[in-house]
């Protein structure tokens, strides 16, 4: 039998490695940004076209590369970060595997320009599918510029698995934010299709968070700081009242490297016990500094998972530090009446006599002469007192009597006529027995017995079918805002809303972009009357992003569900009789009144047989 095992060609091996390292355009963005940081750059620019499918370019002012290094950086397992195996446990740089650029060059057209600061001429290299097409000297600025074009051009199956531009761009923005948060001392900018998304200068940690996510985060954050022999911890956590129903801004960094850790996330979440409702998730930006020899970052190709040798101790330190910060900076302040400033009034000296206040002579009339003043004084005083007694009411109730008497207006109906009119107008609704239970459920009767309706789920079903009808037909009614409202959002959320602009218009929203990180709402659905548009938009975005896994291929249903969950009435809302009856009528007019869009039951019914069986002796 002939030998069948053979070495793979480098091009094929690089494509296989690319499947692990470069899963989507955001993966290439991450690797390229981290290389720029390792090069000592203080300014980094990211340029993206068509969500990275056409172009990803990173320009930095780092140390640059020599002609030989520029060629070697595209070889597999070629790196300047480590020399020996034991250095894997003392890593302080971002990249060290030597696979990133080789993997990217295997599945894209790469254009590299680089120059050392001390050299006058740089190097220009062009690569397509691991094959070098051109390498010549060139004039370029100090640092490195890498342009990745036509990603996955020679692996069309991988390209077909990419999501829409809005989804891929959101992943790119997430990677950019992670890198920018980890290095507030570096200036970053990002551009997509010639539109600037970010331009943040070097700044303190808190200012970097505000620059990326908006000024509203300045008041939402609580500082955390703790230093022990095991770990140095600093950063910020969100106040409990700003917790979200979905995992929003949760960033954990170890030695300036973004990581994902379910175990440490639980330490933070448990510190919020009894402070946030069940199912809510806090915001946090926490930075850990540990001895590199106590962690292993080489357990996953993307380097987002880390093993700690002192994991339990770090868990306890994080939990304690977050809990203490919440108690110190955020929990309602205690009132110490002995120390409160408003009660610290200096006592009156004992040798000072208190003079009674001077009383004014209300009988004084400047138009009287000296001779007539004394005679008229008594009559003026008595007349004034009498007029005061007749004109001044004795209580607040008398004010209304005086006003009614002066205006001499008659009511359209007396009380009995109004009651008779109301009774005749709503006679039909009062005939159906209905009441609210625990401010969550609506109870009413049917021919076969009794039903209990979950009011929140019922309203969600009604809104869901209305939204689907609006998306499939000509749209919903929109209520124009008298004063358009400006809402501040993150750049990723603004990009997502821009991508959903047409669908949101059908749902009743009229939204325009208003600069970086903000939108203007000119109109909203009629069902949103009286609600905070800022909270409504944020809730909708959370619901939409949270449903990405289950409804990725059903965009209209995903939008309808997200809108229904955002607008539905809250559990615990008190409803009057007419509101309950109206909601019942709307529910039974739906195509599927018995279940929510996600399949949860809405109605429980109890027929006569069930009740008789329960009351049997």
Strand order of the largest sheet: 5-4-3-6-2-1-7-8
CATH homologous superfamily label of the largest domain: Histidine kinase-like ATPase, C-terminal domain
Determine the strand fraction and express it as a percent band: 15-25%
Q: How many helix segments?
A: 20
Write down the CATH class of the largest domain. Alpha Beta
Computed CA radius of gyration, to the nearest angstrom: 35 Å
Largest sheet, in brief, is: 8 strands, mixed
- List the uncertain runs: 332-345, 376-393, 402-430
Which CATH architecture of the largest domain? 2-Layer Sandwich
Q: Structural class per helix/strand content?
A: alpha+beta
Q: Span from first to last CA?
A: 84 Å
What is the count of structural domains?
3
Mean pLDDT: 79
> What is the number of strand segments?
22
Shape: globular
Q: Percent of residues in helical segments? A: 25-40%
Indicate the CATH topology of the largest domain: Heat Shock Protein 90
């Amino acid at each position: 039998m002939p030998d069948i095992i053979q070495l793979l060609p480098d091009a094929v091996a690089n494509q296989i490695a690319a499947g692990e390292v470069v899963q989507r355009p955001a993966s290439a963005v991450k690797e390229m940004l981290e290389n720029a940081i390792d090069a000592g750059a203080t300014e980094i620019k990211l340029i993206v076209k068509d969500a990275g499918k056409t172009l990803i370019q990173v320009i930095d002012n780092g140390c640059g590369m020599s002609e030989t290094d520029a060629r070697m950086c595209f070889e597999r397992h070629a790196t300047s970060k480590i020399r020996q195996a034991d250095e894997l446990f003392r890593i302080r740089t971002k990249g060290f595997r030597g696979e990133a650029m080789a993997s990217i060059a295997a599945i894209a057209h790469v254009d590299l320009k680089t120059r050392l600061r001390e050299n006058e001429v740089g190097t220009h290299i062009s690569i397509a599918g691991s094959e070098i097409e051109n390498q010549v000297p060139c004039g370029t600025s100090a640092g490195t510029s890498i342009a990745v074009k036509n990603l996955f051009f020679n692996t069309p199956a991988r390209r077909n698995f990419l999501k829409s531009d809005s989804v891929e761009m959101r992943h790119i923005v997430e990677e950019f934010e992670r890198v920018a948060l980890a290095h507030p001392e570096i200036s970053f900018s990002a551009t997509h299709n010639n539109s600037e998304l970010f331009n943040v200068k070097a700044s303190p940690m808190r200012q970097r968070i505000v620059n990326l996510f908006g000024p509203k985060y300045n008041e939402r954050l609580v500082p955390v700081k703790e230093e022990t022999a095991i770990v140095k911890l600093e950063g910020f956590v969100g106040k409990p009242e700003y917790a979200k129903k979905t995992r929003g801004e949760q960033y954990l960094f170890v030695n300036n490297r973004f990581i994902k850790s379910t175990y440490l996330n639980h330490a933070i979440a448990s510190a919020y016990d009894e402070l946030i409702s069940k199912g809510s998730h806090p915001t946090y930006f926490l930075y850990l500094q540990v001895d590199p020899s106590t962690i292993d970052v080489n357990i996953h190709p993307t380097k987002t998972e880390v093993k700690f040798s002192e994991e339990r101790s770090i868990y306890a330190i994080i939990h304690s530090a977050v809990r203490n910060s919440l108690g110190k900076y955020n929990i309602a302040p205690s009132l110490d009446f002995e120390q409160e400033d408003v009660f610290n009034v200096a006592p009156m000296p004992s040798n000072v006599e208190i003079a009674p206040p001077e009383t004014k002579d209300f009988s004084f009339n400047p138009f009287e002469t000296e001779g007539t003043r004394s005679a008229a004084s008594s009559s003026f005083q008595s007349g004034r007192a009498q007029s005061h007694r007749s004109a001044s009411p004795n209580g607040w109730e008398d004010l209304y009597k005086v006003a009614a008497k002066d205006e001499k207006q008659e009511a359209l109906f007396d009380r009995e006529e109004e009651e008779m009119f109301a009774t005749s107008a709503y006679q039909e609704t009062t005939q159906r027995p209905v009441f609210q239970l625990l401010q969550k459920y609506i109870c009413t009767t049917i021919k076969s017995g009794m039903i209990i309706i979950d009011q929140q789920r019922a309203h969600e079903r009604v809104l869901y079918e209305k939204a689907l009808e609006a998306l499939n037909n000509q749209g919903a009614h929109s209520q124009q805002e008298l004063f358009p409202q400006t809402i501040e959002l993150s750049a990723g959320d603004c990009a997502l809303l821009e991508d959903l602009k047409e669908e949101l218009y059908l749902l009743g929203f009229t939204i325009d972009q208003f600069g970086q990180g903000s939108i203007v709402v000119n109109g909203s659905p009629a069902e949103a009357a009286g609600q905070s548009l800022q909270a409504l938009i944020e809730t909708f975005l959370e619901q939409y992003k949270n449903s990405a896994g289950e409804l990725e291929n059903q965009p209209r249903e995903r939008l309808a569900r997200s809108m229904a969950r955002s607008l539905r009435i809250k559990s615990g809302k008190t409803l009057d009789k007419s509101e309950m009856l109206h909601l019942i009528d709307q529910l039974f007019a739906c195509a599927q009144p018995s279940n929510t869009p996600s399949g949860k039951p809405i109605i429980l019914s109890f027929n006569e047989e069930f009740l008789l069986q329960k009351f049997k002796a």
